[in-house]
Hints:
The chain is of the alpha/beta class. The chain is built from eleven helices and 13 strands.
Amino acid sequence: MSYHVAVDSCTDLNDTLRNDPHVNLVSLTLIIDGENIIDDETFDQASFLDKCKASAKGPTSACPSPEAYREAYGDDDLEAYGITLSAELSGSFNSARVGEAMAKENHPGKQIHVFNSRSATCGQTLILLKIMECKNAGMAFQEVVDTVEQYIGEMTTLFVLESLENLRKNGRLTGLKAALVSVLNIKPVMSSTPEGYVFQLDKARGVKKALNKMVNHIGELAIHPEKKILGITQCNCPERADCVKRAIEEKYSFKEVIIFEAAGVSSLYAEDGGIVVAF
């Protein structure tokens, strides 16, 4: 069945998803020291991470325009879906909703639903996979919407960051707390709330112990893991992601565990060495 899925660029895509004809990427813009970097297939992660480390101010991001979303929904009457960063973290969701209204002006009968992921990175990717699963099963538009919204309601996102510098530079963390974390090598285990905020779930001394705690928390939070895919986003740490994948597969019975490479927005927040899991 023909349909469109507009995904903002915090959705981490592998080559298969990137080349799928149903998927249209809507790019955010990364801004660092006055330079604009488009988060698309031209994004150079190594160069960006070097610029982040050298910047005193740190990077920020700008959400896509409503017009970009309007185009991504397709200039036709086919049904369309949008997937964005948590509305509590970015203006991308609001922009996608305005783009929806614009698309419906041109095609009044067009069915569009924008999903607030209440997540980021691989959490958004799992939502994309769920939409595609529903469509492959022959579901009609409203059944897809209801099924995916229920899926989002059951989803949890956890992450462990090697560095808190970008959060500190963006004013998301006090300088004192960032300094203490750096000096004491304390690594927080962060989690999403049902509304899409983030909070500290746990902490440990050192990234290895923090990742172990994160893996243990999966067992407390996962709902019917045997029926679901778990996604891992890694930022410039593929070997660390492989270790986390093995640990998860040894403890739990997820249908599948898939590793994705962080794109631009994911790299901004996860930073060098960051690991995100969603399930």
